[in-house]
Please model this.
Amino acid sequence: MTTSEPAAHDRTAGLPGLRVGFVPGVTLTKWRRIWADRMHRVPLDVVEITQAGQRGALVSGDVDMCFVRLPINTDGLHTIALYEEVPVVVAPKDHPLAAFEDVSLADLTGEPFVADDDEATGIDRVAWGAGLMIVPMSVARTHSRRDLIHRRVTDAEPTQIALAWLVDNPNELIEEFIGIVRGRTANSSRTAAARGSGQEAKAVPAKKRQPAKAPRTARPARGQRNR
Model:
């Protein structure tokens, strides 16, 4: 009877996971891939959250961190500004705006606008003819559909995406995720791996020491040989 070999020890097994929220329009593919490569079996759960619920998700502990769309009440929060989003206006496909590549706010004067905290519901209302809606281009692309068009608004203020988390959140994996988002390498001294908490840093083997060579003895001069 043969016994199976014990599974190889996984240094990341048993570490607590990290739960990350994101508002519509944010793409986490790159950061999730790096996390999987670097942290192996440490869970990274992601959940989509409405912009209206982004602070509540952090305060309630539903998520450890969240990609939020500013502005947000930052009391008790750390935030890192990441990037700006291009504003676009969403309209039904048969709207006169469809004839333009870009528009200005002046071009939208007198138009009715939809206001809804839920982007998906608001865009549905635009399709029904309730009005127009200005949203980040990433949101318009996320909810792209054949009966709608979107056009860049050249003079509208851009929105900004930031990474936020509670000041008193004790999860050490937060620092690891910040490092990934900021582009730190796996060997950065600020990552959990290098600090010795969480994933351990790999030991670098020392170079194999070569044995010392015996000293060379002097050879007798040609005239002194065989004496």
In short: Residues 87-153 form a domain with the D-Maltodextrin-Binding Protein; domain 2 fold (CATH 3.40.190.10). The CA atoms of residues 117 and 141 lie 18 Å apart. The chain has a mean pLDDT of 83. The longest strand covers residues 77-85.
